Structure formats: C-alpha cells, structure tokens
Amino acid sequence: xxxxxxxxxxxxxxxxxxxxxxxxxxxxxxxxxxxxxxxxxxxxxxxxxxxxxxxxxxxxxxxxxxxxxxxxxxxxxxxxxxxxxxxxxxxxxxxxxxxxxxxxxxxxxxxxxxxxxxxxxxxxxxxxxxxxxxxxxxxxxxxxxxxxxxxxxxxxxxxxxxxxxxxxxxxxxxxxxxxxxxxxxxxxxxxxxxxxxxxxxxxxxxxxxxxxxxxxxxxxxxxxxxxxxxxxxxxxxxxxxxxxxx
Length: 246
Fold this sequence. Notes:
Blueprint: H1 2-10, H2 14-49, H3 52-64, E1 74-85, E2 97-109, H4 110-114, E3 121-135, E4 151-167, E5 170-183, E6 201-216, E7 218-227, E8 234-244
Antiparallel strand pairs: 1-2, 1-8, 2-3, 3-4, 4-5, 5-6, 6-7, 7-8
C-alpha cells in the first residue's frame, strides 16, 4: 500500500506546483500594485470635478485635445527590441544570452467603450505577437553565425492592462496575465521543464510588465516585460510606435 501511495505522489510534477504558485504570485502582484494606484487616481479625479472652475477648464481641455492619447479606444503598436534569456542545458548555467525581437501588439481600451467621459483611465486587453530568431548555440544578436539553423521563439501576450493618462501626452500602465511561449526547439530555454526535447513546444507562462507611452496622436511606447517560469525568467524590452485607430 505504501508503494502505491508513493507512486501516486510521483505523478504530480514538481514544476507544475511551482508554476501554479508563480501564476498566483504574478496576479497578486498586479492586483496589489494596481488597486491603490487606481484608487488614488479616482480620488484625485473626483476632487477636480468638485471644483466648478476646474470642471470648466477640463471641458475646454477636452475639446482642445480631442483625438489625443486620452481618446484611444483601439491601438496598434509595431515594435522592435531585445530579449534576454538563459539557454538550456547545452550552455554553462548562469550564462545570459540576448537576441533581437520584432513584432506588433494591439490594445483595446474597454473603459472608453463603457464610459466615454472616463478619459483619465485606461483599462482593457493587450495581445499580439513578438518573434525572435534564436539560432544555434553561440549565435549572434540576430540569431546568425556558428553552425547556423537553430530555433525560433514566439511570444503571444494575453494581458489585462490598467493605466492612467497623466496628461494628453503621457500614459503609464501595468499589464499582467499570460505569455504563450512557442519554442521551435523545446529544450533551448531553461524554463523549468527539463523533460523537453528538441521538438517544438507551446506553453503559457504568467507575466508582468509595464507600458510607458509618450507623445500625442502617434506616440512612443517603452514596453518592459517579464515572463515568469519555474526556472529562469525571460525578459523582453521593446520600443514601439503607438498608433491609435479610434
């Protein structure tokens, strides 16, 4: 009987339990950081609306800045940047590699669909696809060199996004949810699933990140992001053009 119990316990992968705790920690981090931030923003907005002079100034400003970042409902963000990661067991543990990354993300501001006058806040969904040619072990920044060939990586974010429009030309946001990671060579990354082989793999991992958007109409977006795994995290940092389409 004891042997049966032992065998049953072995059927629960350790990395699955670690991954579940990581998911919970990432979602708790986003919620705990966003809640007081949005509470402060809402309190500040209510204080401004209570002043008749400030209400008049706000109405004038809304007319003058119509079409600015505060009015964005749907946005397209073509981007380019860098990915930092630790390779799989084929390299010395502790090494950090970097590769270039390109892609596009799209954001939907649900707050503006629900309440047209709620222009200070941003709340909605963010998704898209980011791609990197990793290449072979020892390849250069664009995945070329050495033996050639090698693997590719895709990141498909499925995030909730909460932000605040500080003014007409600056917005700061927090993102969180999941990054779906595609690896054409499964064991090329040290993500806590040492059982992976050279075959391709799709796996979702929790992620947290921020968006800093500067400008009016077409803006500059700075997008740091961490993919959290049971072993080594993947960091991506990209620059993008934020193009509002409605």
